[in-house]
Write a structure and sequence with these properties.
Two copies of one chain form a homodimer. Chain A is α+β, with helices and mostly antiparallel strands and 180 residues long. Chain A has helices at 3-19, 24-31, 36-44, 61-67, 102-110, 115-121, 140-146, and strands at residues 48-58, 74-83, 87-96, 127-136, 152-161, 164-174. Chain A has seven helices and six strands, in the order αααβαββααβαββ.
């Protein structure tokens, strides 16, 4: 097993020691290298996204470091809530615009389509590297979105395409969700 | 949503109508486009594979059709059980040898490494197309492996790399497993 995978599995065990056991679904949502949209679709019916923020930014030092970019490169910064009948996952994504094909770029900026579905539509071959999993306190913003003061489970990962980080993602959901 | 995905979700609902509700884990195992090895690793601890059969064959008409090959092309036919403390998933795979890079080929033929882990080791960018999900009666072979006469849940899918089917897979597990 690769070291990074091993670290993720160990970190999930540490979270369980701290919070109590996670459900199978929670563990899968934290560890999977597959489309989270697909998982939410099959669990809850067809999910949609609500875009809270989408803007172009210049990569600051932290972002440049995360995505292996030059500082100042234009990135698409997007914050969405993936939801069925209720909010399911809060997701932040960073995409360097110059790594996008044109029609892919259009879909990404134009419409409220989950990234997993866009990748499928364009038959994008990729791989996902899970970088971290963690527990976080909910800030007020997250408390309002999920209507809970539960602790939050969160992970970060990269979607890699043509050997470059195409998308950096952070996904967050409350510990009291996906419990069965 | 793409039509094929939609069909898979509808077929899973049909299975639930027939058998009763599937667990979240079962639905995810049938629908995910991520590594099943990763999911089993996070659910049960580090899984391994036991190879029941591995041989080179010439593609017959059915296989040629499934993988979009010329009849007679050499394929690697492999049947394995993915297991933790007990058998978890029975998997049959078909790989056309001429679509493999050399070091990837070596890993695939040499060692008892799950395909998901081999793809990761070699940083292979790919996408998975789920082709079908179904319920099947367990034949005697499967009954013995899983020590149950439960009905079986099964799916087929392609792992696509460089626009070609690199691996065709069929995975099977008993309806009475992954129930929580």
């Amino acid at each position: 097993m690769r070291n990074m995978d091993k670290k993720i599995f160990e970190d999930i065990k540490k979270i369980e020691k701290r919070l109590g056991s996670l459900s199978s679904t929670q563990k899968i949502l934290l560890a999977t290298d597959g489309s989270v949209t697909t998982i939410l679709d099959v669990l809850t019916g067809h999910v949609t996204i609500r875009t809270l923020l989408q803007e172009f930014r210049a990569a600051d030092a932290d972002v440049a470091d995360l995505l292996n970019l030059d500082k100042g490169t234009t990135i698409n910064y997007r914050v969405v809530v993936i939801e069925g009948k209720k909010p399911l996952i809060y997701a932040t994504s960073i995409i360097p615009l110059d790594r996008l094909d044109n029609d892919f770029k259009e879909d990404l900026i134009r419409a409220d389509i989950p990234i997993g579905r866009i990748l499928k539509k364009h038959n994008i071959e990729s791989r996902r590297e899970i970088k971290s999993v963690a527990v976080e306190e909910a800030n007020q913003h997250l408390q309002e979105i999920f209507d809970t003061d539960s602790l939050m489970l969160t992970r970060t990962y990269n979607i890699i395409h043509k050997d470059q980080i195409l998308i950096w993602l952070k996904e967050t959901f409350p510990y009291n969700m996906f419990r069965e």
